[in-house]
Each structure stands twice: as C-alpha cells, then as structure tokens.
Design brief:
This protein is an alpha/beta fold and about 400 residues long. It folds into 2 domains: about 130 residues, Aspartate Aminotransferase, domain 1, CATH 3.90.1150.10; about 260 residues, Aspartate Aminotransferase, domain 2, CATH 3.40.640. About 40% of the residues lie in helices and about 15% in strands. Strands 2-8-7-6-5-3-4 form a 7-stranded mixed sheet, sandwiched between helices. Strands 11-12-15-14 form a 4-stranded antiparallel sheet, with helices on one face. Strands 1-13 form a two-stranded parallel ribbon. Keywords: Pyridoxal phosphate, Transferase.
Length: about 400
Amino acid sequence: MQMKRDYREDFPLLMQNETAYLDNAATAQRPACVIEREKAFYETENANPMRGFYPLSLAATESYEEARKTVRDFLNAAHTEEIIFTRNTTESLNLVAYSYGLTNLKPGDEIAVSIMEHHSNLLPWQMTARMTGAKLHFLECEQDGTLTEETLTKGIHEGTKLVAVAQVSNVLGCQNPIEEICKRAHEVGAVVVVDAAQSAPHMPIDVQKLEADFLAFSGHKLLGPMGIGVLYGKRELLDAMPPFLTGGEMIESVTREGAVFAELPHKFEAGTVNAAGAAGLAAAIEYIQGIGFPEIMEKEEALTRQAMEGIAKLPHVKILGSERPENHTGIVAFTIEGVHPHDVSEILSSDGIDVRAGHHCAQPLLAYLGDNVATRASFMFYNTPEEVERLIQSVASIRRRMGYGE
C-alpha cells in the first residue's frame, strides 16, 4: 500500500512551529515553492513590468502574464483578459460595485445578497444601494445554511438586477447552489457576483460551467502571497465597464483634455502591479494542482468529520450549521454555553491551538442565527488527525477551566 505524502514537510512555518494552526479560513500557510518563487522574482526578474524594453522588465512582464494564464486555466475562463489581478477578494468585489454597480443600477432596482455574506460582499452593495437608489434584498438561509427553492424564487425576480453570493460561507462552511442561482438570475436579466474566497482553496471552480458573471478570490487563502487577488469577469461585461482606478499603465494615451484607456485586462490594473505576488500565486496554484482536489477534499472532509463528531459529543457545546460534515468545507464554527468565544480562543491558544473567535466579518448572519459571536476552527489538507484530537480535548476542558466544574 502506497503511503501518502506528509505535506507538512512542504511548509516551513509548520515544520518550525508546534502550534496546531486551525485558522486556515482566515489565511493559509505558504509552501516553500511559493516562498521561493516570490524570492526568485526579486532576485532575478525585479523590474517594473510592462514599462521597459530591457531584459529585466521583459522577464517581469512575462512572469506576470504567465501567472494570468495559470489563473485562467485554474478557473477555466474562456479568455486570458477576463482575469484581473487585484490586492484581494475585497478589492475585487469593490471593483465590481464601483465600476459595474454604480454604472448600471438605478433607483428601484434590486440587489439580492445572501444573509451569509462576508462583509466584503455586503458593504460594497450597501454602498451601491445608497448611491444609486437601488434596494438591498436579503436571501435568508435555513439554520443549516440552505438557501431553499422558495427563498430563491421569491428573492430573484424581474426587479433583481444583481445577485451577490458566496460560493462557500466562511462561518457555516455550506456550499451554495451557484449554478442554480446563476440560471435563475440570467432568466430575469440579472448578473451574479460570486465570492469564492472560501471555495477556491478547497474545490475545483469552472466559471464557464457555473456561468458566473464575476468571481473573486484571494491568493493568501490559496497558499499564495498576501496582497494578490483575482477578479474574473465575463469579457463583454468588463469591456463595457469604466476603470475602477486611474493613473499609470492603464491608459493608451493621455491629453490635456482626457485619456483613452487601455484594453482588457490592463485598464483595471492601474499603477505598478504586484508581479512577484502574481508569480507566487501561480506557484501556489501549480502546487495545489500537483496534489489534486480529489485528495485535498478527501483529507479535509475526514478532518472536518473527526472534529464535528468529537465536538458534538461534548455537553454545552453547539456546532453552527449543518449536522453533516461534508457540508462544512473544512469549517467548524461552535459556541460553548457560558463562555465567550474570545475566552475560548485564548484558552485554546494557551494549549498551542490557533483558531478564530468573534463575528468573523459576518455580523448579519450571526445575528440572524441568534449567536452574535462564535469560535471557528478551519482545516487545510496539511492539518493532521492529531491536531484535531488536541482541539477536541482542549474544547472539552474549557468550561471546567472557566470555573464551571464540568
């Protein structure tokens, strides 16, 4: 029987640190190949891309554009120019809100957002509604995160012009029916903006199959560098949108009176770009593809199942969302009766376990669920069953350590 690789060996921080890092939904760790690729860019290719005709600048430009092609293939986009590099998911979603939303929405139009959205996919649409006169409508989920057919039927209708929804909730871990949402939205002439920050690291994404109009994700959650993100947009939509930022490199020509903007994708990439980050992101994608999503998903589901089964047996502990581990996409959020999540996190930290505590940038969802705050453990394929068992044992001890005697 062939033994599977210990992928932890590829991650320098994990090899030098005994902590059980279970905050992967916030940011993932970096494999050595990503760190080395970014380092190599600065050591051998460092120049301003697309600005010079000398060898270093040409090499930087080539690395940057090759990274764009890697992302195109990763998402199965139809065209390379449909891939826009940004700083992160937040910037990508704001780009759509400012450039598409403010241009195309008007008073009385409806923007449908799920109650599960991270603030990054809610606040831009609140702003858009205020500035255009459009109305915000919330698609409310069941306690397990399900968006029912009735909810989608009532929430996506002739007056709906834009739907903003996460593919995977960063609190409940549930996967939303993006294909069905896109189908319904397109039937009424609406566009769909998908937040893929929590899905891109854990499952294959095919934007053509989904028929998403826009889709965003961050490099740092995908084992890549911080400060690099991606916006995918259908070419015909991006072509019609004005630039989000203006300045250097996003123009064809400038006169005293105005400017002619560059073609896609460069009209949305003003200023000096993060070419080293793009190269690191490409290395992260290639690393993930080398493992393969089937193995990644199998391992993460096993870790999630172990955590849920262990935590569910503990008295006074409630797991948020579905009872089915396969519906949690590596995320287990929970509350402990009588103990604030910040105290839970501090106690776990003293045991060498890193988790997230608070509202997880999803305050409307937690208020809707009646919890307001929660503790979240989130797993990546490099985590181990031993780390999960440490989590379970530590959670089991928290009420006693807080003086409840049990």
